[in-house]
Task: structure prediction
Amino acid sequence: MQTQLADFIRNTPDGEEADAILRKCVHCGFCTATCPTYQLLGDELDGPRGRIYLMKQMFEGAPVTRSTQLHLDRCLTCRSCETTCPSGVQYGRLVEIGRPHVDATVPRPLRQRLIRRLLASLLPNTAVFTPLMRLGQHVRPFLPRKLRDKVPPRQRLLQWPAKRAVPHERKVLLLAGCVQPAMLPNINIAAARVLDALGVEAIVAPEAGCCGAIRLHLSYREEALDDMRRNIDAWWPYIETGIEAIVIDASGCGATIKEYGHLLRDDPVYADKARRVAELSCDIAQWLQGFEPELTALARRRGVHTVAFHPPCTLQHGQQIRGMVERLLTSLGLEVRVPADSHLCCGSAGTYSITQPSLAYTLRDRKIDTLRVLEPQMIVSANIGCITHLQSGTSVPVAHWIELVEHMLAA
Result:
């Protein structure tokens, strides 16, 4: 694709990256076949190829309209198109460049501005979000259905691994995240317990928080970069003392943290540290590769034998991790079933289910239908957003797969 960038973006880091991405696109349209919103709406501008054309026109100086903003808002950023693209077009990076330029040009309606500002301020702020979630769980039966869907019932907490008289020699950092400790705290606890059973201590750095994804995807880029810098500062003392890895049990966070090196590449203070953090980061499924014999020896069958696995987009398309969770669970004696549309988004997509509820719930119901025909005893996934979104549409238990593994290891 030939480009003639406008002065406002030419010879800037964003412009150079956007130009390189645009030039890779050959208009083949393979991406439309795996785009959830194109499949739902049938509009070329609600598929990756159409959105690329809109961003190209914008970068070349064409007027930006509310229509452009709407079509980019409808994008889930699931990156399924990247997996499909034969030319390697990094669509996810392109849309993260395009959205802030659109939002800087086209004023949003007041209601949208308020909702997006509230989400960007509230969700990453654990000091505020946690007590609000506790209150929501307390009054959950009385909440409107749409709000109740976002408030999972309070879990009966597992115990964090006890301090050992002789500490484990192997140590990793574990990202707690921002909303996960309040909404589904047993995910982190289960991860720590599984690691502990394998002779690995999981350390949560007290000052680490939101990975930055929430604000980044809402076009609050500078605030997102500050979230990333804070995490790097929190982790760096552990990295300097030789921590083995930064283990992440929320695939959405993992996809973002692995991009730290790219996102902070122009920061003279943090660029090198960000690259190192990205190198050390791994999804917990990656970290557990090679531990199958130990896990198999420790695992016990406890009622659940058939599960359906929903691979989050951030795992399979964002991090390009496929098959690891399925192989690990199968090695533990479980029958793992994967839906026919496993490559398609469930509609959660971070804050998408709040900002685009109609599309999000349609995608959820379609996903639930393909999971239901598998007749699983349990649905497992690898990201808190997918888990809560899917659970709101089915009576079948939905959990993180690491919680199931922990249950199988429990004495």
About this structure: The chain has three domains: 13-105, 157-287, 292-409.
